[in-house]
From TrEMBL:
Name by which UniProt lists this protein: Putative membrane protein
Parts of the chain that traverse the membrane: 81-103, 123-148, 168-186, 198-220, 273-295, 316-334, 424-449, 461-481, 487-508, 529-550, 562-582
InterPro entries the UniProt entry points to: NRAMP_fam (IPR001046)
Localization terms from the record: Membrane
GO molecular function: metal ion transmembrane transporter activity
Pfam family, one: Nramp
Record keywords: Membrane, Transmembrane, Transmembrane helix
A GO CC term attached to the entry: membrane
Classification of source organism: Bacteria, Pseudomonadati, Planctomycetota, Planctomycetia, Pirellulales
Entry superkingdom: Bacteria
Membrane topology: Multi-pass membrane protein
Main localization category: membrane
Length: 590
């Protein structure tokens, strides 16, 4: 891509490879940046021109991040605050590398990977992105519906939306068309694109304010322990093999038999939650969105510093603030806590606990492990009494395995925040997270489908891609509410999205070190060493997470899911090997 030339608006279009008329706004932005860089006063200009980082923030602050943060707080209290912080820092490093490669070359990453690295890596990356967009869009629609039903439309004594299939479809279609309209604004130049940016930043700002406000209110009520919060920011890798937070002490206080049982029970879930939290910080579709959103804005080498600033402020800071506040609020409400009814040794009282049915399975398994061969012949009443007689620490551990949601959290904090205020804050925050993610998933899919068809300048194919993701997400009414279908969809998504992320990272690691791709822009000396160290850590972290995820599937009670994942991975590994062996470079079109 050519450098900015104030005397001419014609230069190479990175999305098509042909000539393109660059808008006056892009030229003005470049001139503004060049002037700020020459004067050494870039902060104000960076803030004014930021954009793609906020797109990343809109997708990373979704239902997955919310669920992961909630469960981290339940299981580890504030001792797991470090996890998402480390994940997002490494994610920003890798996304910064992606932006550097893209803006230095002006080439579309899909084309560059296929021609210069390995077409199997390029196609695997784009297929995983499309599948992730289509599948992960479903829970975002569900999340928005629940926020309206359980919080926003139940304010002031309202009855919410209910469980009617017809109402679900009606609300879903309104969300679908509203999100589609907003995505199309981003394709326009001038005021429409500006409205899109402002809307998205406002939505992210609302999410941050809502959850940060909860933390401030908890602080005002004296519910926060700053010593434990700061301690939780220090990485603790032993949490991958030992229970976290106060649960570690609870397990240590038990008999060897009970300790062994609960450690085994806890660690499978705890590792899964940790992997989920890492995976939702930076997803594979985010690695696709960033370069194409920058190219679509006309960014080039001049914008490389802005890109790094944008990722750090527009994506990382909102993500860390929101997820940390959710973890803190969840820890305050649920970690190592049960109600008096569940703690009771009276069977009748224990059964009145709202948590009892949710913990009954794990507590019954604990009793059965004690009974051994006699478990099958022991009557229900005797088992219930044995459950009631279990130490409080064991009931606390069982409660830690119960998944909570934002609506339960808002109810728990109602005495502190006020019932209506809690509903409003959590309703707005959760709806904002879900709706912003729907918008971005649809946007990414438009770019990806366009690339798959080799028509990077086709507005028609872009709209088709947007509608495919939106329609898939809208199908949550039929698919995501069915536990069996949801299970297999989750396996499909995790196989391609979570486990392919380290391959995407490794691909961009190779691109950052490729002289064929970067030429004179390839970092050298200390800068190259720094990039490689931090990118290497990101690759190792993503690979470890994918490995643990695969191991958890191996240990799962359903061996079929592991076999499916293993077959897909063996087939893909063969495709990658053949891609390196048979790849022939094609002439660059840009």
């Amino acid at each position: 891509m050519s450098e900015s030339n104030p005397s001419s608006n014609v230069e190479a279009n990175p999305l098509t490879g042909g000539e393109a008329v660059v808008s006056d706004k892009v030229l003005a932005d470049r001139a503004m940046l060049q002037k700020a860089q020459a004067e050494g006063k870039t902060l104000g200009t960076y803030i004014k021109l930021s954009g793609p980082g906020w797109l990343q923030s809109a997708i990373t602050l979704g239902g997955g991040s919310l669920a992961g943060s909630l469960f981290l707080g339940v299981m580890g209290g504030t001792s797991m605050l470090w996890l998402q912080l480390v994940a997002i820092v490494l994610g920003v490093v890798m996304l910064s590398a992606i932006s550097y490669v893209t803006l230095s070359t002006g080439r579309r990453p899909f084309e560059a990977i296929n021609n210069e690295i390995n077409p199997a890596l390029g196609w695997g990356w784009i297929i995983a992105t499309v599948l992730a967009n289509m599948i992960f869009c479903m829970p975002q629609f569900s999340l928005c519906y629940d926020a309206l039903d359980k919080n926003l439309l139940s304010l002031g004594g309202g009855e919410g939306l209910g469980d009617s299939r017809g109402v679900r479809w009606a609300v879903t279609m309104v969300l679908f068309f509203a999100a589609g309209f907003i995505v199309l604004l981003n394709t326009k130049q001038g005021r429409a694109a500006k409205v899109f940016d402002i809307f998205l930043k406002t939505l992210i700002g609302m999410v941050v304010i809502c959850f940060f406000g909860v933390a401030i209110l908890l602080l005002a009520k004296g519910q926060l322990n700053f010593a434990s919060i700061f301690a939780g920011l220090i990485p603790d890798l032993t949490q991958f093999v030992r229970p976290a937070g106060e649960l570690r002490e609870s397990v240590a206080n038990l008999s060897p038999e009970a300790s062994s049982f609960w450690t085994g029970r806890l660690m499978g879930t705890q590792r899964s939650v940790m992997i989920s939290a890492i995976a939702t910080a930076v997803g594979i579709n985010m690695t696709f969105l960033l370069p194409y959103s920058m190219l679509a804005r006309g960014w080039d080498k001049t914008f490389r510093g802005l890109a790094r600033f944008d990722l750090s402020t527009g994506m990382a800071i909102p993500f860390v603030l929101v997820t940390s506040c959710v973890v803190i609020a969840s820890a305050s409400s649920f970690h190592n806590k049960i109600d008096d009814q569940l703690a009771s040794s009276d069977v009748a009282v224990m059964q009145t606990s709202p948590l009892f049915e949710k913990v009954k399975g794990d507590l019954t398994a604990r009793v059965d492990s004690t009974l051994g061969a006699e478990a099958e012949s022991t009557d229900e009443a005797t088992k219930l009494q044995m459950i009631a007689d279990l130490p409080k620490d064991e009931k606390l551990l069982a409660a830690a395995l119960v998944k909570r949601n934002a609506f339960e959290l808002s109810q728990t904090l109602a005495p502190l925040l006020g019932a209506e205020r809690a509903k409003l804050i959590f309703g707005l925050g959760v709806f904002g997270m879900g709706f912003s993610t729907i918008i971005i998933l649809m946007l990414i899919n438009g770019y990806a489908i366009r690339e798959m068809f080799g028509r990077p300048n086709s507005q028609t194919i872009f709209i088709v891609g947007v509608l495919i993701a939106g329609a898939s997400g809208a199908s949550w009414v039929e698919l995501w509410t069915d536990p069996d279908k949801k299970f297999w969809l989750a396996i499909l998504a995790s196989t391609f999205a979570v486990m392919l992320l380290p391959i995407a990272y490794f691909t961009f690691f190779l691109m950052m070190n490729s002289r064929e791709i970067l030429g004179e822009d390839r970092p050298t000396g200390g800068r190259r060493l720094g990039w490689n160290v931090f990118m290497g850590l990101a690759v190792i972290g993503a690979t470890a997470s994918a490995g643990v995820a695969l191991y958890e599937k191996y240990l799962a009670p359903d061996p079929l899911s592991f076999r499916i994942v293993a077959v897909i991975w063996v087939a893909y590994a063969i495709a990658v090997a053949l891609g390196f062996a048979l790849k022939k470079k094609t002439p660059r079109t840009t």
